[in-house]
Amino acid sequence: MAGPHKRFAGLAVNLSGPGATVTSIDALKFTAIVTNYGAEPVKILKYGTILDDKLPTRSFAVEKDGTTVPFRGVKLSVSLDDVDDSAFTIIPAGESVTVRHDVTSLYDFASVGTGNFSFQPVTNFQILGTNETFKTVKQFNKIAIEAESMVVQVTKDISKRELPQVNKRAVDICTAPEQKAFIDDSYIEGKSLAAYGASYINANGANELYKAYWGNTTTSRVLSVFNAVANENSSSRTIFFQEVPTIGVCSRTTVAARNIRGGTTLHELTHALSGTSDVSYGCAANQALSDSDKFINADNYNCFATQVYANTRCG
């Protein structure tokens, strides 16, 4: 596993699945056993990792012949200030947790054709002490667990499967004019933040702030993501949340809080327009990723653009 996450020998991931060759993607069901060999229990944020077996999120990096297979599932923007114990998995010392994944509908196998597919569990974990109550992302310890991938050859049926239907929102919060205006404004502010981010990079190049969020990634690649959001004009994007206007970062909140509505919309639009992923959440955690993960992590664009606004627009 590349990147500056600490190596951690206390956890191990064992992956099992179908045989080496299957005729249909319907057989692509995997079981992961995560064992804690350490002397103390661990509390792990499960979203966007192999431990998340409840939501259709990206728990595997899937490739065919070195080419990434497009992910079709849910990409989250997690409000870390609002997480509760349901966001974590606790593994007592000497015990294991078993999770099961059916990836049949979560990846676009049809777009790459039949062949050999590699399934690598996502095991960059953010952990807390089991007795800790989460208050700030600074509490997280970031660890990387080495896990063997599985290679499965699919010989015939790779046609696209429909994603299971989920209830995206229990209540339609867009019916009230004030709430609709809030969401409309967040869309405008998200595009503006992207433009600020692009303008800042054009003016300052790969300076210290840039390197904190993208390392040695070329500026042209990052600019392409920001420009896609800044120039987006679809009327069909639907984002729902309760947060504060961009100007709030100057007085009411902080960049690290990640509760700027435009930043959240920017995060989501990078998913829709540039195919970014959710590798990590929290500005400090985002900066600790490898360069390759920094580039594809949606939250890096949120944190960077919001920091640019705070640095250049707050008097």
Automatic annotation (TrEMBL):
InterPro entries: Fungal_M35_metalloproteases (IPR050414), MetalloPept_cat_dom_sf (IPR024079), Peptidase_M35 (IPR001384). It is an enzyme of class 3 (hydrolase). Its cofactor is Zn(2+). The keyword ATP-binding does not apply. It catalyses: Preferential cleavage of bonds with hydrophobic residues in P1'. Also 3-Asn-|-Gln-4 and 8-Gly-|-Ser-9 bonds in insulin B chain. Coiled coil: none annotated. CDD domains: M35_deuterolysin_like. Binds 1 zinc ion per subunit. Pfam families: Peptidase_M35. Belongs to the peptidase M35 family. This is deuterolysin. It comes from Sphagnurus paluster.
